[in-house]
Structures are given as structure tokens and as C-alpha cells.
Amino acid sequence: MPATVPVRVRLAPSPTGTLHIGTARTAVFNWLFARHLGGAFLLRIEDTDRERSKPEFTDNILDGLRWLGLTWDEDPVVQSARIEAHRQAIAQLLASGHAYRCFASDAELSAMRERQQAEGRAPRYDNLHRDLTPEQQQAYIAEGREAVIRFRIDDGATITWNDLVRGEMRWAGSDLGGDMVIARRAPADAIGDPLYNLVVVVDDAAMAISHVIRGEDHIANTGKQLLLYAALGLTPPVFAHTPLILNQEGRKLSKRDGVTSVGDFRAMGYTAEALVNYMTLLGWSPPEGIGERFNLEQAAAVFSFERVNRAGARFDWDKLNWLNAQVLHGLAAGELRQRLLPLWQARGWGEGVGADAAWQEDLCTLLGPALSLLVDGVDQAAP
Ligand code: GLU
Fold first, then answer.
1. Range with lowest mean pLDDT among 90-94, 148-152, 160-164, 379-383
2. Distance between CA 150 and CA 145 in Å, rounded?
3. Which atom, in ligand 1's list, is nearest to the CA of 213?
4. Looking at residue 383, what is its pLDDT?
5. Number of domains composing the chain
6. Which pLDDT value is given to residue 3?
7. Nearest-CA residue for atom 6 of ligand 1
8. What is the mean pLDDT of residues 182-197?
9. Inside any domain, residue 138
């Protein structure tokens, strides 16, 4: 990439749930990378799943990022507002022959999958409607069938990219599951709802994103997206796929692990400082000299993908607890009081916890060194 391309990165959360720790960690790496290089950190709300997307989740995600100190540089882009641009790109792919309408019914598709299973093959679309004649298409339309729009994926293609974390990557077209659906089923004279891989490419290009930094669960999508960049005549960004966060058993951290949303950690009494510090350490090894306890600015000064590990990062409660205690012990009494006040008030202590601020600060001086969670400062203040 020429040195003149400005660094612009983005976090692209789907507002289908509260801010997940994995998304927040992706945000941390994007933020650190942008700040390190003097670039821009942007947000795109990927709300194209209309049934599952909710405004309250968008609010929760933005609040969580703000609380963590992961400030963004431009108004968030709302993906659903860009649907005309997505449709235009699909029309372009149809016109250039990179995409086509597939009339296969659900029943035909599941019969196809059963056949593949019986033969011990991996499930994939068999590209059956790739080269329908106009007469065949007319016959399906006359039957009243609707069509999805598929993007041609050449089985013989080899997709390569130089990943900032994982190095030289190579993906075979034949491993991408056959021609990919880019628009949902709709009447054959329309373009149905555009789908994830297509919209991400169109939006990242429109936002002039220079580096896509996201979890490694998106690697196969990157293969598909690179083919779309080429077909649309767009320059692809540089990719960095960050390691997943694993639970104690070494499996991907999921909802089943209980505490996974940033709001949960906050409610448990973790400070934003400790949580961002900890998330930075999940997959990144700080260089000599800055230790393990640092703030975002200090990490940004030395951040690079060379020190991001490829292996998954196991969640370590002890380390998080240690960091949180360090943060709490380092707070001035006045600051600790500010943070405890809402918790005391939530206990119904109102203004009454020893009435005056000076007394409360003295209490904080006393309590501070013993806290490892902010909420401890409520229980210990009770007597
Ligand atoms: N909305 C996608 C997600 O939440 C974004 C993936 C990407 O960064 O491209 O996983």
C-alpha cells in the first residue's frame, strides 16, 4: 500500500446484542492501531438484520465504547441507510456477469445437501443455476418462483493476502462453499436484501477503510470479500485477523460462559481502565519497558501487530482482578468517592452516607487499599 493512503479503520458491530467482550477487544486493537499511526477510528452499525437489530443494542454498544474510552472520529455510519449503494453494486455485478439469479427452492437445496451428506462430501451450493438459459429462467418465473442473487466463485481460484497478524494467507476458491448468495430471495425483476459479505465490501470501500482489523472467525469471509473487491474493481484494504478470546477450557468464549458483555463486567465492579488494559493484553504482548499495567495512550504509543499472537488468548480472571485492584488502589480518594457515590445511592444511602464529602473521602482513603472490585466499596462501607 502506498504510504500516502491515510490510515482509516473501523469497528463494525451488529446491534443484535449488547457489547460483547470480543467486539470490545477488536475495538481496542483498531483504536490502538489508529492512534499509533495518527489515523481515524470509525464505527459502522451493521443493522441489516432487521429482525434482530435493536436501537437499544446500538445505544448499549456506543455507551460501552465511550465508557472504555474508545472514542471514534466521525459520526457512525448506519449500514441500513446505504442500501441503495449496496443494490447498485449488485446491479453492477449482474451486468458484468459476476452475479446471476438462482431460482433453486428450499426443498431443492436441502435435497442437494442430503445428497452431499450421503456421499460424505462437505455441504456446498453446486452452482446448478449458474448458466441457465433465458428460456429456463422464464420457465421458473412463469412457475412463480423468486430468486436469490449469487456471486460466482471460481473453484479454481486461489486467493492470497498478507495478513498483518497471520502472515501469508492462501485460500482455495473450492473451499468457499460454491457461488455465494449476495441478495435475499425476491421477484426476478428486483434485487432482494443485500447480504453481509457484499455490504461490508461496498461500505468499507465507500468509507475508504485502509485496514480491516477483526476476529479470525472472519478469515473465510475475507477470501470471499477479496473476490468481490476484484469483481467490483475496488482496491482491497489490508487485513489483520486477531486471535479469538478463549474460555478456561480453551474454547471460544461464548454466552454460555456467563459474563461476556462489557456491561456485565461494569456491573461486577470492574473499572474501565482495568478492562481495557486487560483486553489489550488478550492477544498482544507489550514490548519491554511498559509492563502490564498501562493506559490506552501508553499502549497506543508502542502498539503494533508484530506483537499480536496468532494463538487464541485464554481469559484469565486472576490477571483482570489484579489489574482492577491496581487501578482502584491508585485512585485518589476524591475520584474513588465520585465512583462509589452512585453505588451507595443505589443502596438507598442517598446523601446520608456520612453526609458530607470530606467524611466520605476519609472513608475512601480507608477503604481504597483493600478494594479489588468497585462494589467491594459498598459492602465494606456498610458498617
Ligand atoms: N458485523 C460483523 C460482526 O459483527 C462485522 C465483521 C467485520 O468486521 O467485517 O462480526
1. 379-383
2. 16
3. 8
4. 67
5. 2
6. 53
7. 12
8. 97
9. yes
Q: Is the CB of 14 under 6 A from ligand 1?
A: yes
Of the pLDDT bands very low, low, confident and very high (cuts 50, 70, 90), residue 355 is: low
Predicted confidence band of residue 250 (pLDDT cuts 50, 70, 90): confident
Whichever domain contains 339, its CATH number is 1.10.8
Cell numbers at 225, concatenated: 470479500
Q: What is the CATH number of the domain that holds 153?
A: 3.90.800.10
Instruction: Pick the closest to residue 253 from 14, 13, 24, 12 (CA basis).
Output: 24
Is residue 297 predicted with pLDDT exceeding 80?
A: yes
**Residue 171: is its pLDDT beyond 80?**
yes
Range of the domain at 353: 330-383
Residue 188, pLDDT above cutoff 90: yes
d(CA 43, CA 342): 30
Instruction: Show which of 196, 224, 249 is a domain's final residue.
Output: 196
Domain membership of residue 362 (yes or no) is: yes
Task: Let me know if 158 is exposed, middle or buried by CB neighbors in 10 A (0-12, 13-18, 19+).
Answer: exposed
Determine the 3-state secondary structure of 8 from DSSP. Answer: strand
pLDDT (0 to 100) of residue 96:
98
Please report, as a single letter, which amino acid is at residue 321.
Answer: N
Give residue for cell 449488547: 18
CA–centroid distance, 51 to ligand 1, in Å, is 17
For residue 261, the 8-state DSSP code is B
Q: How far is the CA of 242 from the centre of ligand 1 (A)?
A: 13
Measured in angstroms, how far is the CA atom of residue 202 from the centroid of ligand 1? 14
Report if residue 37 sits inside a domain: no
* Whole-number Å distance between alpha carbons of 270 and 328: 9
- Among 145, 166, 196, residue at a domain's last position: 196
What region does 233 belong to: left with phi over 0, alpha with psi -120 to 50, or beta?
left
Ligand 1 proximity of 200 Cβ (cutoff 6 Å): yes
Q: Which stretches within the chain are classed as H helix?
A: 21-36, 55-68, 83-95, 106-118, 134-142, 196-206, 219-232, 262-267, 272-281, 296-302, 317-330, 333-346, 357-367, 376-379
Indicate the residue type of 191: I
Classify 193 as helix, strand or coil: coil
Q: Does ligand 1 have an atom closer than 6 angstroms to the CB of 214?
A: yes
Residue 221 covered by a domain: no
* Spatial distance between the Cα atoms of 360 and 239, rounded to a whole number of angstroms: 50
| pLDDT tens digits, one per residue of 134-147 | 999 999 999 999 99
